[in-house]
Amino acid sequence: MYGQDAPSQDALLLTPSSKDSNILQCHGTPVYQYDVIIVGGGVAGAALAYALGKDGRRVLMIERDLSEPDRFMGELLQPGGIEYLKQLHLESTLDGIDGRVIYGALTLVGEGQRLQRYPNRPDSGRPYCAIGFHHGRFVNNLRRAATELSTVTARQGVVSALIEEPGRGRVLGVSYIPSDSVPRDTVGNTGNLPGPLPAFAPLTVLANGGLSKFQRSYLPRLPTCNSCTYAITLRDCELPVPNHSCLVMSKLAPVVIYPISSHETRALVIVPHHVRKMYDNDIRRYLMEKVVPDIPETIRSKFIEGVEASSLRFMPNLYLPPSRCAHNGLLFLGDAFSTRHPVTGGGMTVALGDVVLLKQLLSPQVVPSLDDTRVVAARLRVFHWKRKLWSSAITILAQVYIQIMENQGDPDFSILGFALAEYFKLGGTASSTPVGLIGGVYTNPLLLLYHMNAVVIYGFYRFLISSDSPRTFIGNICRALSALWAGYNLVLPLVWAQLF
Ligand SMILES: Cc1cc2nc3c(=O)[nH]c(=O)nc-3n(C[C@H](O)[C@H](O)[C@H](O)COP(=O)(O)OP(=O)(O)OC[C@H]3O[C@@H](n4cnc5c(N)ncnc54)[C@H](O)[C@@H]3O)c2cc1C
User: Fold this and answer.
1) What's the CA-to-centroid distance between 317 and ligand 1, angstroms?
2) How far apart are the first and last CA of the chain?
3) Which residues line ligand 1 (CB under 6 A)?
4) In what residue span(s) does the Squalene epoxidase domain sit (predicted)?
5) CA separation for the pair 191, 188 (Å, rounded)
6) Beta 104-109 vs 59-63: how paired, if at all?
7) What domains can you pick out in the chain, each with its CATH number?
8) How far is the CA of 351 from the centre of ligand 1 (A)?
9) What confidence tens digit (pLDDT) does each residue in 93-125 have?
10) How far is the CA of 135 from the centre of ligand 1 (A)?
């Protein structure tokens, strides 16, 4: 219920749920002060606040810390993400952040190297490009764009619980502990720090990141994690190919290096949990002993300087396939909803693509009032299925890529790595289409299917003809079949988890 005719909020009683400390039950009918409450003002939350606010929806965005984030995740936006920003009319958020254009990637494996570029645009023939930047500067611009709209209210605070209808029904809003200046009428004149405040809206969007505590209460799946990413900053470093990221296949796991400003280059070192254990958490020693020798000589000294100077911050690499939240009035978005390995830098692109789709599906022409539970639920069902079409390719490729790279010591995975490398060597679309899929430029899942099968056929053919005698040929057939089995065991569960 909206507006003046509704009973006063004072008549409401909020009681903790006996089963779940993340949930409050609301006795009485609340007044909706907003159309949408968005929890989290990261890439997903801020972009959605802007998109819905622009459509005239009254949005409350609650963010734990509204100052410029100092994080090393989300520093490379793929070309697909840039296109989504354009569709949201948010491309200006990439201005003034000292971003660096990236046209492709140089992959270094032992002595070999391979340069892969994003495909060309069909209209102008000019290449698609990604952009590297400081995550915090970009997010700041997104938040500014959202809060400049009169329809969007941003509050700094932590959402501590969701408010539900009794009987675990519809989500009616959130309870949050504000940490910014609180209007007098909401806390009274006591002068005390405010306790939790309720806020009500017919739709609550949880965009509070991959470690959202609400996943446990509302989603059938939870994130898993078997590696971390460590961040190193390289100062004034010339990459082997300018305006191209550099992927180094180190002995135990890959390192991704790309520019994030005119003077800074980011190196992200992926460290599987078993390696961390092997080195007794002494990551600096691991970096110096195992990673540094694989870093190209031209940038090795900068890398070492970076390792010595950095405080070695790290983040967990989460994997969470998307799943539908069965509760009316609630939607998960961004990393809270689904995550993939960061090695291919696809997270922000998926989040922005989801925002574009949500804006279309919830447009006021189609859904005049978000209070219409039945219509909103139907639109969110469409969202859940439609997004799979394009987001699955980005996620599947990220997971397949990292598994192959992390397991090069395994005979099956080393054959899969060989097949992939041989296929990419063909060049042309064999190289640019997979990069286009990773970059979110191509969104047709059939392209993924086609290229995966082509890798198997061509890569395994190359593997078999590399046999130097009939005897090794027979042995190689057995090895190829075993690798094929490992490949399908890797891919099919990923496809299943993304699609169902
Ligand atoms: C190491 C690493 C590197 C990555 N590199 C890339 C990359 O190069 N390119 C790319 O596209 N993606 C990358 N990603 C993924 C990308 O960072 C995420 O997909 C993206 O940031 C998701 O945005 P989000 O808004 O969903 O979540 P987040 O960016 O995590 O934002 C969540 C927000 O919610 C707030 N919040 C949390 N809890 C609460 C609460 N209870 N109340 C109020 N506010 C709350 C947080 O303060 C935060 O601001 C990387 C990820 C990792 C781990």
Assistant:
1) 11
2) 35
3) 39-45, 62-65, 73-77, 158-159, 207-209, 229, 315, 317, 334-336, 342, 345-349, 351
4) 200-467
5) 8
6) unpaired
7) 9-74+138-221+321-388 (3.50.50.60), 100-131+224-318 (3.30.9.100), 407-499 (no CATH)
8) 10
9) 999 999 999 999 999 987 789 999 999 999 899
10) 9
